[in-house]
Amino acid sequence: MDQVHDYENLVADVLGENMKMCEILQVNVLLKKFPPTWNDYRNHVKHKKRDLTLQELISHMRSEEAKRIKDKKISNSSISIKANLVEPSESSKGRFQHKGKKFKKGMQQKSLKGNDGKIQKNKQLCYCCGKSGHKAYQC
């Protein structure tokens, strides 16, 4: 907040000479005192639709500076934020090795077709009586 103190000293000198400054001029002078790292914030404030009062600008500056200090502390901290990563143990590495892989060329696939070329269906038994050919709701 050195810029605010420099600005206040400058305004005190001007007002000490019995000169008057409008508030918009004071806001623009304060904006000029921002360091080069604040260029994006300065441009944002300059292009707002309505003009800020001096007190509004100072409160915006203080909140922006507090945000920048907080961001700098977070980025400079030695604690890095990492996602919880679960790594497989040695015992479970081979367990899922062939999951989802296609058959190799030498392997034969099970045939669903019977001797006559039609697809075989498993014969289902009735849950109530144990006979095949119908289901329990038909029994």
How would you characterize this protein structure?
With 139 residues, the chain is mainly alpha-helical. The chain has a domain at 2-76. It is 40% helix and 0% strand. The chain is elongated and about 110 Å long. 3% of the residues are buried. Residues 89-115 are annotated as: Disordered. InterPro entries: Znf_CCHC (IPR001878). Keywords: Metal-binding, Zinc, Zinc-finger. Residues 126-139 form the CCHC-type domain.
Structure in a nutshell:
This protein is mostly helical. Helices cover 40% and strands 0% of the residues.
How much of the sequence is in beta strands?
under 5%
Task: Please give the oligomerization state of what you see.
Answer: single chain
Structural class by secondary-structure content = mainly alpha
Overall geometry? elongated
From the N-terminal CA to the C-terminal CA, the straight-line distance is: 88 Å
How many individual β-strands? 0
Unreliable sequence segments: none
Number of helices, counting only DSSP H or I runs of 4 residues or more: 4
What is Rg?
A: 39 Å
Helical amount: 40-55%
